[in-house]
Design goal:
Length: about 475
């Protein structure tokens, strides 16, 4: 007796009965569904090892069933059969991820062989489950590196909200780890066993994004040859990650607002409401408040998304994490011949900590990978770093006073005070003594700056006087 379960999806009862009999005789447990939608419902409830599906069915066709298997990464093999025997459709099915196809009328032997082949293939796949689990482990907290206070704050927040269903809005410059954090939120939630579905709202053309998110019915528009499930449906029970949310068109913003409020949506061209059992995680590298005040992003949607704001600090504000991140990335390429014993010299590290990192952690990761590949020696020195990093670091280091500590020591508060004064003078000179602009450069408000100017008794030099 085999312990394998097989699902048959076909709208014709004779076919279901015929296939059931053949496969039950082989010792398989067989269940059946009379259309694609019902098949998906069964697949989402019970584990099946193989699904044998007819191509043409009402509601949702066989390609839709295969698409569901593939996109949800179900541990189930899809085999499609068609009465039309058209090579084109068979190729489509295989391209989509079907394991094999059969043409009608059925030959009992052929069915037995194909199902057996599919099960052998599945056994092989299962050997790889271990690797898949390793992939999941990638998104555990310990793989988000950071001991800085700013990152510790982020970890505490992730810890608090991961287990809830609250919508999280992640803010952060490019490369700060927004997607990494979104995945950690998902894989540390009760939804972890269900899909994490990312959508880059900035990368998909506006006219396609709606059907990408909500799916479409067959014939909804020119080219909609078959019903397609959208990402919200695919994420059912799991989380959807709406990346670059600020790029969403006003029209779609309205639709998204409705999904959040009513927890349901329709496919493009469809009338039936579909429940959205999805946790929403969104991310942006823009200042969304600005997008709202300039009318590009709906205020009501902003508030709906911004339930739990999570700010990822740029790398330059947590340079103390750099050594640890480097160690982490060196460990990420264990297969590389030399990465194991590789090290960055003190000088190199100090340059890396003075550089501004416009591309943040991604830029650092790329740099480490590049060094590993290019360096001939296990010790990477400042001179080995890319020119742009060295030039950037040199510019940055001018800000830090190069003082030699005298034997007698110095007075810390006087030194700090002098440093502050010099920085303020730098900002004022750079902004032609326009205090508003200087305040912006220093990330303080104007009143604070005016107070400091008074305290430091600074005066506008004559060359800045507008005559
Ligand atoms: N704290 C961290 N610890 C370890 N790796 C990190 C950390 N932050 C980011 N990374 C790595 O840096 C790279 C960029 O991260 P991610 O894609 O999450 O950034 P992002 O903010 O989504 O960027 P973008 O805005 O460009 O999409 C990834 O390879 C990620 O694994
Ligand atoms: Mg990203």
């Amino acid at each position: 007796m085999s312990n394998h379960s097989i699902l048959i999806a076909d709208d014709e009862i004779q076919n279901r009965e015929y296939l059931s009999e053949i496969l039950s005789d082989e010792g398989y447990t067989v269940a059946s569904a009379s259309n694609g939608r019902e098949a998906i419902a069964k697949l989402s409830q019970d584990p099946f090892q193989v699904v044998l599906t007819d191509l043409q069915m009402p509601e949702l066709d066989g390609l839709g069933v295969i698409q569901y298997l593939v996109e949800n990464k179900l541990n189930c093999i899809g085999i499609i059969y068609t009465g039309y025997g058209s090579v084109k459709t068979a190729v489509d099915a295989m391209r989509l991820g079907a394991f094999d196809y059969i043409t009608k009328p059925f030959k009992a032997d052929e069915i037995k062989v194909v199902v057996k082949k599919a099960l052998d293939h599945l056994a092989l796949q299962e050997e790889n489950t271990y690797l898949k689990q390793q992939l999941k482990a990638k998104y555990k907290f310990e793989n988000i590196v950071g001991t800085s206070e700013k990152m510790q704050k982020v970890f505490r927040l992730i810890d608090k909200v991961a287990g809830t269903d609250s919508t999280v809005l992640i803010f952060g410059e490019s490369g700060t780890g927004k997607e990494l954090v979104a995945r950690a939120l998902h894989y540390n939630s009760l939804r972890a066993a269900n899909p994490f579905v990312p959508v880059n709202c900035g990368a998909i053309p506006e006219e396609l994004l709606e059907s990408e998110l909500f799916g479409h019915e067959k014939g909804a528009f020119t080219g909609a040859f078959r019903t397609r499930i959208g990402r919200f449906e695919l994420a059912s029970g799991g989380s959807i990650f709406l990346d670059e949310i600020s790029e969403m068109s006003p029209n779609l913003q309205v639709k998204l607002l409705r999904v959040i409020q009513e927890r349901e949506f329709e496919r493009v061209g469809g009338v039936k409401s579909i429940r959205a059992d999805v946790r929403i995680i969104a991310a942006t590298n823009r200042v969304l408040e600005e997008e709202v005040s300039e009318g590009r992003f709906r205020e009501d949607l902003y508030y709906r998304l911004n339930v739990i704001p999570l700010h990822l600090p740029p790398l330059r504000e947590r340079v103390e994490d750099i050594p640890l991140l480097i160690k982490h990335f060196l460990g990420k390429y264990p297969k590389n011949k030399s990465s194991k014993g590789m090290e960055f010299s003190k000088k190199a590290l100090s340059s890396l900590m003075q550089y501004r990192w416009p591309g943040n952690v991604r830029e650092l990761e790329n740099l480490v990978e590049r060094m590993v590949v290019l360096s001939d020696s296990p010790m990477i020195d400042a001179g080995d770093l890319p020119d742009r990093v060295m030039a950037g670091a040199a510019a940055g280091s001018q800000l830090v006073p190069q003082i030699d500590l005298p034997e007698t020591g110095i007075d810390l508060s006087t030194a700090v005070n002098d440093f502050e004064k010099n920085i303020i003078i730098l900002a004022l000179n750079k902004s032609n003594w326009v205090k508003n602009r200087a305040a912006k450069l220093l990330h303080v408000n104007r009143t604070t700056l005016v107070e400091k100017i008074k305290k430091q008794k600074l005066q506008k030099p004559s060359e800045f006087n507008v005559s």
